[in-house]
Amino acid sequence: MLKAGIVGGTGYTGVELLRLLAQHPDVELSAITSRGEAGTPVADMFPSLRGRVDLAFSDPKDAPLDRCDVVFFATPNGIAMQQTRALLDAGVRVIDLAADFRIKDIAVWEKWYGMTHAAPDLVAEAVYGLPEVNREAIRKARLVANPGCYPTAAQLGLLPLIEAGCVDTGNLIADCKSGVSGAGRKVETHILFAEASDNFKAYGVAGHRHLPEIRQGLSIAAGVPVGLTFVPHLTPLIRGIHATLYARVSREEDFQALFERRYAKEPFVDVLPPKSHPETRSVRASNLCRIAVHRPQGGDTLVILSVIDNLTKGAAGQAVQNMNLMFGFDECIALSQVPVLP
Amino acid sequence: MLKAGIVGGTGYTGVELLRLLAQHPDVELSAITSRGEAGTPVADMFPSLRGRVDLAFSDPKDAPLDRCDVVFFATPNGIAMQQTRALLDAGVRVIDLAADFRIKDIAVWEKWYGMTHAAPDLVAEAVYGLPEVNREAIRKARLVANPGCYPTAAQLGLLPLIEAGCVDTGNLIADCKSGVSGAGRKVETHILFAEASDNFKAYGVAGHRHLPEIRQGLSIAAGVPVGLTFVPHLTPLIRGIHATLYARVSREEDFQALFERRYAKEPFVDVLPPKSHPETRSVRASNLCRIAVHRPQGGDTLVILSVIDNLTKGAAGQAVQNMNLMFGFDECIALSQVPVLP
Amino acid sequence: MLKAGIVGGTGYTGVELLRLLAQHPDVELSAITSRGEAGTPVADMFPSLRGRVDLAFSDPKDAPLDRCDVVFFATPNGIAMQQTRALLDAGVRVIDLAADFRIKDIAVWEKWYGMTHAAPDLVAEAVYGLPEVNREAIRKARLVANPGCYPTAAQLGLLPLIEAGCVDTGNLIADCKSGVSGAGRKVETHILFAEASDNFKAYGVAGHRHLPEIRQGLSIAAGVPVGLTFVPHLTPLIRGIHATLYARVSREEDFQALFERRYAKEPFVDVLPPKSHPETRSVRASNLCRIAVHRPQGGDTLVILSVIDNLTKGAAGQAVQNMNLMFGFDECIALSQVPVLP
Amino acid sequence: MLKAGIVGGTGYTGVELLRLLAQHPDVELSAITSRGEAGTPVADMFPSLRGRVDLAFSDPKDAPLDRCDVVFFATPNGIAMQQTRALLDAGVRVIDLAADFRIKDIAVWEKWYGMTHAAPDLVAEAVYGLPEVNREAIRKARLVANPGCYPTAAQLGLLPLIEAGCVDTGNLIADCKSGVSGAGRKVETHILFAEASDNFKAYGVAGHRHLPEIRQGLSIAAGVPVGLTFVPHLTPLIRGIHATLYARVSREEDFQALFERRYAKEPFVDVLPPKSHPETRSVRASNLCRIAVHRPQGGDTLVILSVIDNLTKGAAGQAVQNMNLMFGFDECIALSQVPVLP
To answer: Which residues of chain D have a CB within 8 Å of the CB of C48?
Structure first.
C-alpha cells in the first residue's frame, strides 16, 4: 500500500482528493494536516466522508509526512515551495496542487504571485503535470506541479491546433467560465450564495494568474511566445469549467480529425462528434475532459469547446492521475467513476 | 455475469440505473428499451455515459428481455403491471421502480393511481423492497416493488419509533422536501429552470400518491392504521430529499440509542451523533440515508431528520441493492461510491 | 421630505431598505453609516444603486442621525439598544430591524441572545411592528421593533386560527424554509455558494432565536402560553420564506372564510383560493404575504402555507410599511412594486 | 389613457410586459390573448399579478385589438407578420417582440427563420427599436421591430467602437451567456431545472438566429459588412445576459472616454468606471445596460463587458421604452424600478 499524505486538507481540492483516494485500492491515507482544525475528525468537517475516512486532521508539525511515499499539497500558494525540499530529501515524492512550481520563469511567477520564490531550483526540476503532454516525464518525476483548472481546460482545447501549426498563435482567445468551487472554500463575500447565485460576471479581466500558465504551455508547444487574451467568468455552478476558445485558421486542416488523432489514446480526453456542445455536467465528478471542434459558417475562426470538472481533472483527479503514473499504477485507478448526471 | 434489462430507460431513474450498473462488475447490461428513442445510442442522450454504455435503446417489442436474469421497470405507473407476468413466467426476476406493486390494498391503489390494476395477484406476491424491513423476503423474491423516494426517507426516519411503540401513531407529520429530479424527466412547465429555480412551494397537500404508501409501511410496523399528514415540497435542488418528521412521545425512551441500535448493521443507514443536521449533499449520488434524532427543548415532540438522494437510495440505488440481495451478491456492490461534495 | 437615516447599511436588509427608500417620493435619505466602509460610495458596494443613491457610507460618530426624522437600525443584535435612547431624546423616531426590542420578557431575551439588555425600559415602550396586529399602536410609536422574517410568516399564518380559538394551541408546528439571504451578508462557510447550492438542511432544531418571538406573538393572541415546535431550514433560494404550519382543529369552523375575513382589509396579506400552493417567487421583491389554507383529507390537522420575501415583508419592506404608518403616509407608498417573476 | 393590447401573453416576455404595464400610470391594458388559455384569468397563471391585473386571456379572434392604441406581439416568430397589416390599417401602432420585422434582407430572414415572409413591405417600413440608435425614427414609427436580447447586449457593447472606426470590423467576437428564461416558457427537455441547473453549455455554435441580426446592426454602423463570430451559452440564471465582446484595435483612442461620450445622455446605458466587472444581477428586473471597457495588458485586443436583463432591456422593458417614445411619454415611465439585488 502506498502511503499518502495531504497538507492542507480543509479546502475543496482537499475533500476531492479524499473522495478519490478513499476509493483507491492501493493507497493508504497516512496523514492530513490542517493548522486550524488539528484534532477534528475529517468526517466531522465533511460528513460525506463518514465511514470512509477515519483520520483526524493533524497539526502540520506532528504529521508523519516524511514517512509517506507521496505528499499532496492542497494549500494556498507559497506553502509548498517552503516544505517540498525537506520532503524530497526524505525520499518523499510531491504533487503540488497550488501554483508554486508551475511557472518556469521565476520573475514571471514572482510578478503574478507577489512573492519571492523560496525554491527556484525546484521549479527547474518540477514536471508540469499535464499527462497529455508530459506523461513520460511525470512517471519519473520526484516533484509534479499539478496544473491549474483553467489551464487544463484551455490547453487541452488549444494544444492540438498549436502543435499542428495551423492557427495564428498571435491572437488566441480563451473565454472561460468556472463554477464557484474554483474560488476555494474561503469566506469571501463575492462567493456567498446570495451573491453568486442567479448572477454572472467576468473577473480579473486585467490579468489573472492563470494567464501566464496557459501562455507558457501554449508557447512551449508553439516554439514561440503566443498572444493570448484570457477572460475568466464566475458562473453559478458548483463544479465545472467551460472554455470557449477562439483561434484563426492559418493553414487548412481536417480539424476534427486532428483532435481525434491527437487524443486517440488518452483515457481522459473525449473528442465529441462534429456539431456537439459538451455540457459541464457530462463530466461532473469525473476526470474527463470533453472537447468539441467547431468552425462556424466555414469561416476563418475556429471555436473549440472544452469542459472539465474543475475539482477533478482541474485539480484532485489530475493529481491522482499523476500519482498513478509516478508509482506505476494503472493510470485510471480510482478515476473511473461515471459522471453524475443529472 | 448477470444479464440485466431495463424497460423505459430515458428518465432520471433510468440514467441513474445505468450509472450504477455500468460500475457493477457482475452485471452485463443486455437491453434497454424506449419506444420513442429506439435506435438512439444511450450515450447520445446521456453523454455522461459515453465510453461506458455502448447499447442503443431498442424497441420494447424487439428487446430480448425474456432472456435476462433481471428486468428493471423504470417506466411510468401502469406499465409494469402489464408486462411482469410474462417475464416471471419466462423465469426472469423483476424489480419495478414505479408504483404498480407497492400498495397491497388494490382498491386503495386504484383510487390513488386512477387505473384498474391489471395484475392483482402479483401485488400479493410482490415484496416491498425496503431492505431495512424486508431483507430476507427480498432475497427470495421473484418480484420486488421498489419503494418511492419520499416513502424511503419517511419510513426509515419513523420506523424505529413505531416499531418500539414509543410515539403517538395517530398523529404523525412528514414535512418532506424533494429535489426537482424527483418529478422526472418530463416536459412540464412547473419544473422548468425558470420556474423551479430560486423558488419554493408545497404541492399535493390535499393528497399525494406517496401518502398511502408511507401509511401502509408505518401501519404494518404499528400493527394498527396510523394517522399521517404528509406535505411534499418542490425544492431547487437537482437531487435530494429531506424529510422533517414530527412525532409525539407516548413512552419515554433513549431515542438516540434506539435509532443507533435499529440501524447498527445496516450498510446504508447512518445515524448521526446527537444535535446533527444532515445535509442532502452529504448523500449526493450515494445510496446512503443519514438520520438525526432531535427532541427540541426536551418537549413532547420528536423531530427526526432523514436525508437521501432521491435517485439513488430513493430509486435506482435501492433497486440495485435489491438486485444484489436477490442474486446473492454483496449488498454493497456498485453502491460504495463516496458522496460527491461539494 | 422626511429625513431618514440608516445605521449599518452594508447588509442585505440595508440594501433592501435603500432599494425601497430610493423609490419613496416623500423620503430623503440623509445618512447611512458603516464603521468599516466609511467613505465608500454606497453605489460602489451595491452597483444596483448606481444613479439612484448618491450617498457614501459615513462613520457612525459623524453621521447626522439626530437630525433625521426616522432612523432605521439594520445592524447586528445588540447595537440598537445602546443608541436608541439618545435618538429618541433628540426627537427621532426609531425602527429597529434587529431583535433588540422584540421580546418583552427581558430574561427570555437575555437567555436567547446571550447579552445583558442595555435598555429594558425601552423594550416596554417599543411597539412590535406587525401592522396586521398593531397598526394603531405603530402609528403613534416612537420606537418600533420590526419583526423577524420567520416570525412574520409564521404569525400571519397562525394568528387567525388562534384568535378564533379553533385550534389546539398546545401543539403547533412551524416547519419553515428560508432563502440564504436570511443568514445575512456575513462571510460564513455554510452560506458559500458551493456549500448552500444544490443542498438542503435543517438547522437550529434544538432552539432558534425566532422561537420565543413567534411564541410570544401567538401567546398574546391566545391569551395563554402556546406550545410550538419550530424547525428552520436553509434552502437554495436567494430570497423567500415558506412556512408550512400544522395545527389540530379543536373547534369546527369555515377556515377558508376565517382567513379571508381576517385579512380582508390588509393591503399586504393575500389569502389564496382553496387548494392553492403559494410559491415564494409570487412575492419576490414585494411586501406581500400569500397564504393558503388546507385541511388534507378532511382530517383533524390543518396545514397553512404562508410565503413572504424575507428581505421585504420579512424585514425592510415591513420597516417601510411601519414608517409609512408612523408618519401618516399611505401605507403602501414605495411598496407597490409587482413581484418579479420569473 | 393609452389602450394597450398584448397578443400571446403566456410566455416570459408576456408576463414581463404585464409587470411593467401594470405599473404604468398612463396605460390601460385592454386585452391579452392566448389561444390555449382563453378564459383563464391572467393572475391564475401568474400569481405574481394577483390584485394587479384583472384581465383574463381572451381568444385572439374575440379580442378588441383593433380598438387599441398599441398592440404588442409577444408571440412565436411568424405570427406578427400575418396580423400586423390589419392592425396598422385600423390605426393601431404595433411593437413586435418577436423577430418578424428585424432583418431587412428578406432572403436572409427566410433562410434563418425557415419561413416565407408574409409581409415584406412592412419589413421595409418597420423601425428597428433600439432607441440608442433609432430614437427619432421610433417616435414616428407605426411599426417597431423590438430587438432580440443578445443583439441588444452585443450591439450596445460594440457600436461605439464601430461608429468611431477604431477596431477591425472583419474579426469581431461576441461570446454571450444567457439566463434560461431567454429560451422562453416552452416545455423542452434541455431547459428543465434538472438539466439546466448546475450545468453550463454553448449551443447554436454553427449558427444562431441572432447572428444575422447583430451583424446587420453592426454593418449599418460600419458602413460595410462586418465579420462576426457569435457563440451563445446557456447559463443557470433565471434572468440576465452577459456579453463578452472582443475587438482588435485598428486606431488608438481613449476607449473609456469614447463609451462615456457615446452614452452620456442615454437613460438606460450605464458606462462603468475603468476596471469594472458588471454583474448581471446589477440590472436584474431593470431596463438598464451596464458596460465596462477593458484593454488587458495594454494589448491589441479590447474586451467589452455588457450586461442586461434579457426580459427587460432585452425584451419587454425595451418594448415599453419604445412605446413611451412612440406616444410622447417620458421615456423612463414604468421603467425606473431599482434593480433587485440580492
So the answer is: 281-284, 286, 338-341
Closest-CA residue of chain A to B19: A338
Q: Which residues of C are catalytic?
A: 149
The model's pLDDT over C6-60, given as tens digits with 9 standing for 90+, comes to 999 899 999 999 999 999 999 999 999 998 999 999 999 999 999 999 999 999 8
B198 touches chain A (CB under 8 A): yes
Mutate to test the interface with C, among A16, A149, A180, A193 (most CBs of C within 10 A): A193
At A9 the pLDDT is 87
Query: Could you tell me if C167 lies within 8 Å of chain B, comparing CB atoms?
Result: no
- pLDDT tens profile C151-188: 999 999 999 999 999 999 999 999 999 999 999 999 89
Please tell me the predicted confidence (pLDDT) of residue C201: 98
D149 a catalytic residue = yes
Residues of D in Cβ contact (< 8 Å) with B12: 194
**Distance between CA atoms of B160 and B260, rounded to whole angstroms?**
9
Name the pairing type of β-strands A27-33 and A70-73.
unpaired
Say which residue the cell 468606471 belongs to: D273
DSSP string, A71-137: EEE-S-TTSHHHHHHHHHHTT-EEEE-SSTTT-S-HHHHHHHH-S--S-HHHHHHPEE--HHHHHHH
Q: Which ipTM score applies to this complex?
A: 0.97
Of D109, D142, D82, D156, nearest in space to D318 by CA: D156
User: Which long-range contacts link B63-68 to residues 24+ away (Cβ below 8 Å)?
Assistant: B63/B5, B63/B7, B63/B31, B63/B32, B63/B33, B64/B5, B64/B30, B64/B31, B65/B5, B65/B7, B65/B31, B65/B33, B65/B92, B66/B90, B66/B92, B67/B3, B67/B30, B68/B3, B68/B4, B68/B5, B68/B30, B68/B31, B68/B92
* Helix and strand element counts for chain D (H, E): 11, 13
Q: Give yes or no for a contact between B279 and C199, defined as CB atoms under 8 angstroms apart.
A: yes
Contact yes or no for A201 and D280 at CB 8 A: yes
- The residue among B138, C49, B242, B318 whose CA lies nearest residue D281 is C49
pTM here?
A: 0.97
B23 inside 8 A of chain A by CB: yes
Q: Any bridge partners for residue B160, and if so which?
A: none
Contacts within 8 Å (CB) and 24+ apart, C141-145: C141/C93, C141/C326, C142/C88, C142/C93, C142/C94, C143/C84, C143/C88, C143/C93, C143/C94, C143/C95, C143/C96, C143/C101, C144/C93, C144/C94, C144/C95, C144/C96, C144/C319, C144/C322, C144/C326, C145/C96, C145/C99, C145/C100, C145/C101, C145/C102
pLDDT category, D9, cuts 50, 70, 90? confident
Secondary structure (DSSP) of D97-131:
-SSTTT-S-HHHHHHHH-S--S-HHHHHHPEE--H
Q: Sketch out chain C's domains with CATH numbers.
A: 2-125 (3.40.50.720), 149-309 (3.30.360.10)
Between CA C104 and CA C111 the distance in angstroms is 13
Contact residues on chain C for B233, CB-CB shorter than 8 A = 177, 242, 244
Contacts across the A-C interface (CB distance below 8 Å): 58
Closest-CA residue in chain C for A11?
Answer: C189
Q: For the CA atoms of B83, B88, B90, B95, what is the dihedral angle to 10 degrees?
A: 80
Give me the residue from B171, B230, B237 closest to C200, CB to CB: B237
Q: Within an 8 Å CB–CB cutoff, is residue A278 touching chain D?
A: yes
Asked whether the beta carbons of residue B189 and residue D187 sit closer than 8 angstroms, the reply is yes
Pairwise CA distance, residues D193 & D342, whole Å = 21
Min Cα separation D207/chain A (Å): 7
Q: Which of A284, A285, A290 is nearest to A306 (CA)?
A: A290
Residue of D50, D181, D342 lying closest to C181 (CB–CB): D342
